[in-house]
């Protein structure tokens, strides 16, 4: 069984991350949190040795121009969601890793690919509130202010 808690990191992201508008109390009933449980890590036989939608990827390679190690990862759902081929996914990962040079077939073949799978676990906000009430006897609080019926007073 998994234990769900709101960490200070997720609270910071939800309320103070300048890249996104803060979550408002009226949005709470529609929120859900999905966690990917990553499993079955395997070294792939090459950059084509994985299935779109089934495997997540970790790539590792040496940037030939700067002679530095680069790496990046995508969860299993990314390539399928984007509609990418194997090569498009690998190329996107290389860019995500910070590589700005020309991507060639020769370079792709030098990449170490680790593939993995994941199981998604989702909890809706109402389930979270019910869990806290049952197990802790109280509804959640936001930034130390108790929520009333799941809503922060004054918001």
UniProtKB/TrEMBL annotation:
Domain of life: Eukaryota
Domain AMMECR1: 1-132
Residue ranges crossing the lipid bilayer per the database entry: none
Family matches, as PROSITE patterns: AMMECR1 (PS51112)
A Pfam cross-reference name: AMMECR1
InterPro entries recorded: AMMECR1, AMMECR1_dom_sf, AMMECR1_domain
Gene3D superfamilies, A to Z: Hypothetical protein ph0010, domain 2
Name this protein carries in UniProt: AMMECR1 domain-containing protein
Organism whose genome encodes this protein: Sorghum bicolor
């Amino acid at each position: 069984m998994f234990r769900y808690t709101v960490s200070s990191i997720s609270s910071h992201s939800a309320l103070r991350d300048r890249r996104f508008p803060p979550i408002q109390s009226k949005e709470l009933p529609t929120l859900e949190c999905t966690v990917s449980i990553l499993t079955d890590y395997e070294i792939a036989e090459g950059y084509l040795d994985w299935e779109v939608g089934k495997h997540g990827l970790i790539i590792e390679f040496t940037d030939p121009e700067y002679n530095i190690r680069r790496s990046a990862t995508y969860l299993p759902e990314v390539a399928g969601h984007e509609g990418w081929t194997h090569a498009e996914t690998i190329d996107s990962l290389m860019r995500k890793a910070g590589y700005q040079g020309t991507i060639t077939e020769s370079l792709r073949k030098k990449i170490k690919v680790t593939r993995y799978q994941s199981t998604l676990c989702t909890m809706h906000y109402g389930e979270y509130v019910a869990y806290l009430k049952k197990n802790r006897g109280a509804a959640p609080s936001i930034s130390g202010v108790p929520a009333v019926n799941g809503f922060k007073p004054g918001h």
